[in-house]
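User: I'll paste a sequence; please echo it back and then give the predicted structure.

Assistant: Echoing your sequence first, then the prediction.
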Amino acid sequence: MQPPRPATAQETGGKVQPPRPATAQETGGKVQPPRPEMRQQPQPAQPPAPKEKPAPAQTQSPVRPPRGPDKTAPPAPPRAQPAAARKPVPPPARPAAGGKGGQKQVPVGTKPGGPPAKFSQPERPAAPPRPVPERRPPARRARGLSTGEFNLGLQAPVTSLPSIGPHYAELLERLHIATVEDLLWHFPHRYVDYSHLKPIASLTRGEEVTILGTVWEVQERSQFNGRHVIQAIVADASGTIQVTWFNPYVKNQVKPGRVLALSGKTDLYMGRLVMNSPQWEPLDQELVHTARLVPMYPLTKDLSQRWLRQRIKQVVDAWASHITDFLPDRILASTRLMSLAKALAQVHFPDSAEQLEQARRRLAFDELFMIQIGALRRRNLWRGQPASRLVVTEPDLARFQACLPFTLTAAQQRALGEILQDMQDMRPMSRLLQGDVGSGKTVVAAIAMWVAAQNQRQAALMAPTEILAEQHFAGLTRLFARLTEQGLEAPSLALLTGSLKDADKEAVVARLANGEIQVVVGTHALIQQGVTFANLGLAVVDEQQRFGVEQRAALKQAGRAQEQPLTPHLLVMSATPIPRSLALTVYGDLDLSIIDELPPGRQPIKTYVIHPDERERAYGFVQSQVAQGRQVYIICPLVEESEQTEARAAVAEHERLQREVFPRLSLGLLHGRMRGDEKETVMQAFARNETQVLVSTSVVEVGIDVPNATVMLVEGANHFGLAQLHQFRGRVGRGEFASFCLLLVERTDQTEDERLRAMVQTQDGFKLAEIDLQLRGPGDFLGTRQSGLPSLHMASLGDVRLLDMARSEAQQLLELDATLSQPEQRGLATRLDHFWRDQGDVS
């Protein structure tokens, strides 16, 4: 028996006639229920057939044969469906409108006039036949490419791919995609789960689902604004749903009778469920945009997800399986990681959530492994160079410490011992000294610089700002003056900053070159062209996260004169506690010393979050502290007002506070755009208590020490990270008086309040740094340029377990092959160079 055919356009007057429900007379007075097979799985419905020709038992869903590359060839017959898909499916009757989730048929077991029975939960449909996608794979794949040819192909420009001309190449260039390889490594930033298939009758509002259905009719409508919308009725064996696209070109592709997979979010319109602008694909092609975990890529203007996803699919199909894995077999076996070829395929088009997780883990390990290899190789290279051996006797060290007005803490003694031990080695020291605000790092560095001078070597201390450099210079001057009390010789000391007069600067540079200056404190001026050292033995970098990697490298190389190419010892300091995970990545080439103990007598700083309606109370508290003789910092996020943000600016806020809030007090103003001499004048006035309130930007974050200051009021605290707020808080509490930190927020926000509450709950800078890293990431935590860290697409620095595994494997590999020169490491060496390109010296 021949299967029924749909009514033709001629028979229906040029229109596709929808089916009408069978009447009671035609069915003998009974409502005919659907056949049981209709509830087995959500199958695409056929277009309705005339009622006088019932469907035969073996009718199959229409599957359009794939269109081959040769359009003149006869179409191939459809592949045989699986057994589960060959059950007879009668065409659904088109019921009257009503009911949510599309238009339903009467369930099995419903009696006339009785309560409707519930539909049983439909099973997941059997996979429809998937012929070869309608595209032409790259010709090279057909003849089988060698590894060398594929490597060459990966470097081909994107314009060598089908459908990518100069216009699209220009759009891709905005995403830093220029070659086929760039497309392969352009990873999704999120996924939409369209893998959940449901029958239309069981849909509810707000679901992101996939349906399989047949297009019954398509209409084009014009809106009042002149835009054209395409509306289609799509049906499966359980009901129908209206689908709308706002792209008029869809009409040329979505035709009545075509069987589609549609993925999107359901919504309600006039009481009926609809789908607006869903992704869609014919069922006779491989599903890329629907019925799966669909990748969503970073885009640029005029580039669509569908277009980019299709291009990346072509690249993945052609090249991913031929990528050579650069990890040695030993590492793959010990870590049980997914192969690189499979990881690339699964991260773009995952078969399941589990496969996606394994792919992301492999690619994240690769990034962390590359960081560790690069950092450890730089450390080995640095430690392999000759350096001066700087020693000190125990009696001299004891006499120096006797000159101090305080006793070193146990943590300071431990860190000092580690530093002096490194300096006695003929290999250059490469050490990071970190500690919380006020933990006493500077005095430890001062002892190390004095030891260098005792060994007839120069020492340099580089600070990020002139204010901090001048403060270090003043502190060292006072400290070295005490040495004569114990019969020790004080080293010669000088200051070199950009604000010095030309004559004074030239004099300092000349004395550095002839060795007359033993200890110099400065800013970036220390690494300017023309500045040379006679015999630099120790380089100290304070607040080193504020320097770029090139600047740190330049200071290290400054002491390597041609006639005496010795490498100086390097000590970098940070008052921002660095989480262990970040220390193992950005500073993986540095040994770590931690001062985790504050000097005795320091009081905890009471911290409060102040909401906008409490501002006047905060100002009243400031007045009361000044009345007791104390001083106050007020920090603003900006220097001048900006239309881009509502954050308060220091210049305007200084004027407003002086005029309206504190007219009887003396207020100072400090920001980074002021000249060096202006900053110095303002700071000296505040240190002498000539100004009671200092309005400033974040320039006070580091190094300013005024023991009489007891209040830190931060405007727009939500604009700062926790680590930076902790630095602000560390500017107070340096004297004998109780101190306070007031965090003023611009608006009440529960999320921000929870973040700032961590400042209230703990004074531990290391805990705050861990929280800050999780919330902001390494780029914002340190600044991408300062960190010297390549962009991480998959790895999270919070994944300490994976990080430890990467570091362990990197150490074992370099112990076996320090230069990566063995044949099996050549691919890894090439990938390593590619990963670290344009990053400079991370150490």
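The first strand starts at residue 190 and ends at 193. Residues 241 and 328 are 53 Å apart (CA to CA).
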